[in-house]
Amino acid sequence: MRVLITRVIPESGFQLLEAAGCTITRYAERRELSQQELINACKQQDALLSVGPNKIDDHFLWESRHLKGIALMSAGYDNVDVAAATRHRIPVSNTPGVLSGATSDVAFLLMLAVSRNAFYMHKSIERGEWGFYDPTANLGMEVTGRTLGIFGLGKIGMELALKCKAAYQMNILYHNRHRQPEAEKILNARYVSFDELLQQSDILSVHASLSPETKGLFNKHAFAKMKPSAIFINTARGSMHNEADLLGALRNKVIRGAGLDVTDPEPMDRHHPLLNLPNVCVLPHIGSATVETRSKMAVMAAENILALLRNEPMPQIINPEVYHPAKNKS
């Protein structure tokens, strides 16, 4: 099987494909491929291991309809037209689950960093402002016993809630499309409406998938319903919050602070005003960036490719109906 990989990935995944006898083409140049370049690169390939924000839309899928499958090295798949992939009979897989611990760690890190103005205070040292001791200046907020609101209590949200409950005895609220009875039992979590989540959370952390319903959901109207002392955390997708509205809410003290591992667009402009606010911490989308997690993601993506080689369904299939077209038509 001929496999195109759009980034240099951890050797654990590469070696798995190599050991199975795959002929691998790795794109190693440090720039994004245009869609046409990716289409051209796929013409002589059997499968695509896609890493990064490659636009896999109906046009790409039509031009690449010969592919036996596409394996994403990511949990999210909002860059893929899944319905079009199914129409073209191309199975698509992702890497769910393995990045939950690492991503929840980053949300936890951002929560603490924002609560103590950590990034801004670090910059104050670089500016030469660590001088006179003022016991009333630069005061943070303790998180012990606070209320953590989670929008999207899946695996990542659950990991964060467990950490916050154990470390800081935090009360857990959540809003999902469906209730999570097991999480309620383990965490003593309380299911609330979206408005109640906004109104009652001291820290609100976003862990849902991007969809037409969630895109831009956290806008000026949502921020206006939050506590003035609340902290907003987003480690999911940048386009779930309106960046201009968030900037306004922070400048006008509608909410206390924000911690972002995702922005809209990415990468964020280095002169963006959010980067200079004292109550904001921004990271460059490093949620899954640990040696252990990226290696697991590479292995999982490779295993999805190897399933194609064995003419088996991909284990982490996003569009399982591609394997049952007759059933799907009925």
Structure description:
With about 325 residues, this protein is an alpha/beta fold. It has two domains: about 1-100 and about 290-330, NAD(P)-binding Rossmann-like Domain (Rossmann fold, 3-Layer(aba) Sandwich), CATH 3.40.50; about 100-280, NAD(P)-binding Rossmann-like Domain (Rossmann fold, 3-Layer(aba) Sandwich), CATH 3.40.50.720. Helices cover about 35% and strands about 15% of the residues. The protein contains 13 helices and twelve strands. The protein has helices at about 10-20, 35-40, 60-65, 80-85, 100-115, 120-125, 155-170, 180-185, 195-200, 220-225, 245-250, 290-310, 325-330; strands at about 1-5, 25, 45-50, 70, 90-95, 145-150, 170-175, 190, 205, 230-235, 255-260, 280. Strands 8-7-6-9-10-11-12 form a seven-stranded parallel sheet, with helices on both faces. It has a five-stranded parallel sheet with strand order 2-1-3-4-5, with helices on one face. Helix 1 runs parallel beside helix 12 and helix 5 (about 100-115) packs across helix 7. About 40% of the residues are buried.
